[in-house]
Fold:
Amino acid sequence: MILTGNSLVNQRLDMAKNRRTNRQLPVRKPDANRPSARKRIFDTASQLFYLKGIRAVGVETIAAEADTTKMSLYRNFPSKDELVAEWLRDHDVNFWQTWDAMASRHPKDPRRQLKAAFTLLARHVADPKARGCPMANAAVELTEKDHPARKVIEAHKAKLRTRLVQMCTGMGAPEPALLADQLFLLMEGAEVTKQTLGARGPARNVARAAEMLIAAHLGAS
Structure:
């Protein structure tokens, strides 16, 4: 007797049918234009870290938004901490490429270089999509001294301060280190107040404030 429903015969017939159907399905070819899993993970994490904050974004969210898996994420990045550090290293590279390109347009004229730098900053804080400085934002969240991103942040900010001192010295400021510190504080303050009071708050005057500060220092020489 052959039983109907879930009989062994019916199961075998179904399996044979499935094999025939599967053989007829077209093989999905990989999209050559699609970014690699590593790039999708990195780009997604970079955007989420900047817009939502580091602590607010988990690896599950990153993997899902990047259309991949946690396993793939950990194959490409040893940990979330290392992914954060890599994001900030990338920001550091892009920042200095932009800075050096700006400076190269005004060779041997540090005052014009500074004016251009603060013009760029004013444009940035006026952008409604901007959420401050990635380095400064990360520094607030990452309080652990041994976090791999801390060294990236500290090295970036130290280099910025050194560059400002060099430019203020090149302008002939009587107290270049003091002027550099004041300009540094203007930069940091503009990024922070943009987030609290918006683009129409004090941040909008950062370029003008820098120019007046520079003029005051040079007028004292």
